[in-house]
Design brief:
Length: 744
């Protein structure tokens, strides 16, 4: 019998003799293009992915035939984002291929990672071949569903050879993972009969095999001829998804003897597959009470040696009929947060009928919400980014940005536009009573600068004042209604040359509005509530700072918004210095986590090891108690997102290690006509004299601090004193710009 390798020209698909599957290459220490693609998508090091595949913790279902047709490789397993599958397929009662293609388009458009073709009527091969040809998503199938139609025989007349031939046909067609119910052998059936169940066997493939075994008296052919199944899978690098024939169909049957007995068998079969060079996933429930889900995931990881876990829901109640996409999403979020790796969606039509395209959309979005929520809980790299951006867009009432971050932007936009609000920028839920602008204005108080896009304290001019029936305040430096210009050194909100105006009621000697009680005031982030004399007050540092530097300087610093690109040796130290100086708001962006190599020069401590730098840094900045607001973004700053991250910043301190990243950030920000001042660091390695660390003005909006020459490669060291010197120069320059002592 010719193998897939021979059919492809006599060589292994990736050019290495005797290495065919991702598992083969990983164990040989080689990183394939597919591993690199997964690593890039997951923001992981390629070696992390290779090691995971080699250990069986990660699977990359990628049939060599489907790769030729444009499959986008995806990884399933530990440390990666939770993947989502959509089921579809032609039914005997509803044989409408056009409807199934509409479901395919829905799956592709709304972010599914895989499609399982569960067609079970007639000649299904053409649809399956077309699906592999057209979609870049992973494709899975269940050969047992297809065997009767493919072989044109009744179930009881099927032979082991017939079933193996069906498996081969699916592999040859390019299917990436095959659900094969190998674990329901005679031992498991004996346990099932002895212990009993409320709903017996609800797996379609499992029930067909159980019926075949009972009628013929033979062992499960997929179990008996498992080695032959593995040979086929290895030829085409098909991942075997070991089906759970005894998955619970109701809460009563969850985690019972039959399910556990089958999982024990699946653990044994997992090791045999790995020994044969075949990647493995394990399939799971089903229906399960919330309090049992985490234990089930732990049991799978233990019994099946850490193999990726692929679960259907689980549905956390049996009475949600018509809304089972919700009951399944609840279970999916819990199971994935506990360690499950792959969620099969459930639609509102579950238990009722064949889903239509709308059902597919509802089920897919519900399951993606579950997967995304779990990824946030698991700390998957980048999982929180869209949420943080959505929060910021909501703060600014930037509706078009909200659609971009939504899992289903179309539905969100249609619902919003179908019910227009009378107050521009709000929705009909609250209208002019929208909490966002009011809360924003209240949080700013009378000193803090307005943020772009939020109503309430925008800059004004006299014509606007008259149009609104206001009389301009003719006092020097004041606008309408006591609106005074911001201090020098702070750019205008819209990027023009006019000063930004903020509401500044007459203040007492400590900068607070006279007659405004402290009790009930919403404290700014970073202030600590202290009961003192029956009133709630903030920390004493802001007042002490004002006594040190004076009221005018304090107000200028309080109004400033400064960005910091990178939270390493430069960035963390810059942030601490600026917070201690009383800067009103810091925007800090970095993707990395704290490791031991950072502690010799970066502002972190042992208790921060393994934590995202921006989170550890934000805690320290808020603990200073200066009233500084901190916007900490765990993200990689790129030319594509830099403008959005640092929007509204007066100054950006560049604190990268990578020279290319430094250059790209400078090019992106300095090409803005009225962008922020950029303060970069360049050259602080080694133990050279302090006098070499200097500040140079390159252009009107571009400064560079450092010796301009030293790097780690030449000196072999980054030492805390010199790094801190450069950081101090950058922080000092930022303060001088805000105070109007530097630049024009």
């Amino acid at each position: 019998m010719s193998t897939a390798v021979e059919k492809l020209g006599g060589q292994a698909p990736r050019g290495e003799k005797n290495l065919v599957t991702q598992l083969d290459y990983a164990r040989a220490g080689q990183i394939t293009p597919e591993m690199r693609a997964v690593a890039e998508a997951e923001r992981r090091d390629p070696e992390f992915v290779r090691a995971g595949v080699a250990a069986g913790r990660i699977a990359i279902p990628a049939n060599v035939r489907h790769l030729e047709k444009g499959l986008v490789p995806r990884g399933v397993g530990a440390g990666l984002s939770t993947k989502v599958n959509v089921n579809l397929g032609i039914s005997g009662d509803v044989a409408d291929a056009s409807m199934e293609w509409e479901k395919v388009r829905t799956a592709e458009k709304y972010g599914a990672d895989a499609i399982m073709d569960l067609s079970n009527s007639g000649k299904t091969r053409f649809f399956r071949q077309q699906l592999v040809e057209r979609t870049p998503l992973m494709v899975g199938t269940v050969p047992m569903y297809d065997a009767i139609g493919y072989m044109e025989k009744p179930l009881v007349e099927l032979t082991a050879e017939d079933l193996l031939a069906t498996v081969r046909a699916h592999a040859e067609d390019g299917v990436d993972f095959l659900t094969i119910h190998c674990g329901i052998n005679r031992r498991v059936i004996e346990t099932f009969k002895e212990t009993g169940r409320l709903m017996n066997i609800v797996s379609r493939g499992g029930s067909l095999l159980f019926g075949w075994m009972e009628v013929t008296g033979n062992e499960n052919p997929f179990y008996e001829y498992y080695d032959e199944v593995l040979e086929i899978c290895h030829e085409y690098d098909v991942t075997i998804s070991l089906g759970d024939s005894c998955r619970p169909g109701c809460l009563f049957d969850a985690n019972d003897a039959a399910e556990t007995a089958e999982m024990i068998e699946l653990g044994k079969l997992t090791k045999r597959a790995w020994d044969a060079g075949v990647q493995v996933m394990i399939e799971g429930p089903g229906h399960m009470a919330i309090n049992e889900i985490a234990a089930n995931v732990t049991m799978e990881k233990r019994l099946c040696h850490g193999a990726p876990y692929y679960v259907l829901g689980p549905l956390v109640t049996d009475v949600g009929v018509g809304y089972d996409h919700i009951t399944a999403a609840i279970g999916g979020a819990i199971s994935a947060s506990a360690g499950a790796d792959f969620l099969c969606y459930v639609t509102p039509a579950e238990h009722l009928c064949l889903p239509d395209a709308k059902d597919v959309l509802d089920g897919l979005i519900a399951t993606r919400i579950a997967a995304h929520a779990a990824d946030i809980a698991k700390g998957v790299p980048g999982a929180r980014e869209a949420d943080d951006r959505m929060g910021d867009a909501r703060r600014r009432l930037a509706w078009d940005e909200m659609w971009a971050y939504a899992l289903d932007p179309d539905t969100a936009r249609v619902r919003y536009e179908a019910s227009p609000a009378s107050t521009e920028g709000t929705c009909t839920m609250c209208g002019k009573m929208c909490a966002v602008p009011h809360g924003e204005q209240g949080l700013r108080g009378h000193h803090d600068r307005p943020r772009p896009g939020i109503g309430g304290c925008h800059g004004t001019d006299k014509r606007q004042d008259r149009a609104r029936g206001r009389r301009p305040d003719r006092r020097r430096g004041a606008g309408a209604d006591g609106i005074r210009a911001c201090p020098r050194g702070v750019r205008a909100q819209r990027g023009d040359s006019s000063p930004r105006r903020v509401r500044c009621p007459p203040a007492d000697g400590r900068g607070r509005a006279r007659g405004r009680p402290l009790r009930g005031r919403r404290l700014m982030a970073g202030e600590r509530d202290v009961e003192r004399g029956g009133a709630v007050v903030g920390d004493a540092l802001p007042d002490a700072l004002e006594r040190r530097i004076g009221h005018e300087a304090r107000e200028r610093l309080r109004a400033a918004r400064i960005g910091i690109a990178g939270a390493g040796g430069l960035g963390s130290n810059i942030a601490v210095m600026l917070a201690r100086s009383g800067v009103g708001e810091l925007v800090v962006a970095d993707l990395d986590v704290v490791d031991e190599g950072n502690l010799n020069r970066q502002h972190y401590f042992r208790e921060h090891l393994g934590r995202p730098k921006v989170e550890a840094l934000a805690e320290q900045l808020l603990a200073i108690g200066s009233g500084t607001r901190v916007r900490a973004l765990r993200t990689r700053v790129t030319p594509e997102n830099a403008r959005g991250i640092f929007e509204g910043c007066d100054i950006v301190c560049e604190a990268f290690d990578d020279p290319e990243a430094k250059a790209l950030l400078a090019e992106e920000l300095l090409t803005l006509p009225e962008g922020p001042v950029l303060v970069a660091g360049n050259g602080m390695a080694g133990a050279g004299p302090a006098s070499e660390i200097v500040t140079r003005r390159v252009s009107r909006r571009f400064y560079v601090c450092g010796d301009g020459a030293s790097d780690v490669g030449a000196t072999g060291a980054l030492l805390a004193p010199r790094v801190a010197l450069c950081a101090a120069q950058q922080a000092l320059l930022a303060v001088r710009i805000v105070l109007g002592l530097e630049g024009s």
